[in-house]
Design goal:
This protein has five helices and no strands. By secondary structure, it is mainly alpha-helical. This is LTXXQ motif family protein.
Amino acid sequence: MKKLLLIAGLLTGSALFANAQLLDKSPEKRVNHQMKALEKNLKLDASQSEKITNILTARAGKVDSLKANNADKKANRKALKALAQTSEEKINSVLTADQQKSYAKLKETRKAKAKKQGNAAMDEPSIKS
């Protein structure tokens, strides 16, 4: 019984630690993580990669500053949604037609996964693979 409790405690602790690491990423780490997934799934060329990295870096900085400002959560949510929309438009303008289709599928898959996990309000999915 003691072993079972010890194992359960260790598993819970390691799961909490792993989750904390995901939530505590800097903007640069989040952008790098997203870019790895995009490069893998969309087969971006060097020019596209650079442009999208710049778009994501700018978005990450703005997202962090909005999240730091807790004054008006409703206004922040609206601003985050607008930021996500403009970022998506910029990213799509860099992609080819085939890449846009793949990107849309990737976002839908990510959104469905988040919804399944109980994060239905995820308008700006972080792209993971």
